[in-house]
Amino acid sequence: MKTNEITAIPELLAMLDIENSIITLDAMGCQKEIVKLIVKQKADYILALKGHHSGLQGELEAWWHKCQREGFTADNFDEHTTIDSGHGRIETRRCQQVLVNKSWLNNKYQWVGLKSIIKVTSIRRQLTWPVRDN
């Protein structure tokens, strides 16, 4: 029997003791009702945001650019970068977090428990080696 993730996730959350946990979900689980259940059970969440939430995504991108224009500060911004190499490539991952001022967001996009936006940028460079002619 195939189940719909959107209906299965709340059922699973109801069965689990998630208090003081961080629940991570892909874009399918990025639903206001699911978030309400997570917060009601005293947990936090990290959700992947994709294009089907274009209004929320637009609001959060606008907030990001507003903070960028006004200057990130130690009070509202943090970042971490890692560089790894292997399998003939170098990958740079940059994780940036900015705190959200909910008074700035349109009421339509104020999700329960929304505290910050995390932006992950990954750049992968393939290493090329010079070819020698004999």
Short description:
The chain has 134 residues and is an alpha+beta fold.
Helix content: 25-40%
Strand order in space, largest sheet: 3-4-5
Share of residues in strands: 25-35%
Give the overall shape, derived from the CA principal axes.
globular
Largest sheet: 3 strands, antiparallel
**Individual helix count:** 3
End-to-end span in angstroms?
62 Å
Number of strands: 5
Q: Helices and strands: which structural class?
A: alpha+beta
- Ranges where pLDDT stays below 50 over 5 or more residues in a row are none
Quaternary status: single chain
* Domains, number: 2
- Mean pLDDT value: 87
Following the backbone from N to C, one meets helices and strands in this order, namely HEHEHEEE
Query: How many whole angstroms does the radius of gyration measure?
Result: 19 Å
Protein name: Putative RfbQRSO155-1
What does this structure look like?
This protein is of the alpha+beta class and 134 residues long. The protein has 2 domains: 48 residues, no CATH class; 75 residues, no CATH class. The chain contains 3 helices and 5 strands, in the order αβαβαβββ. The strands form 2 sheets. Strands 3-4-5 form a 3-stranded antiparallel sheet. The chain has a two-stranded parallel ribbon with strand order 1-2. Helix 1 runs parallel beside helix 2. It is globular. This is Putative RfbQRSO155-1. InterPro entries: ISAs1_transpos (IPR047647), Transposase_11-like (IPR051698).
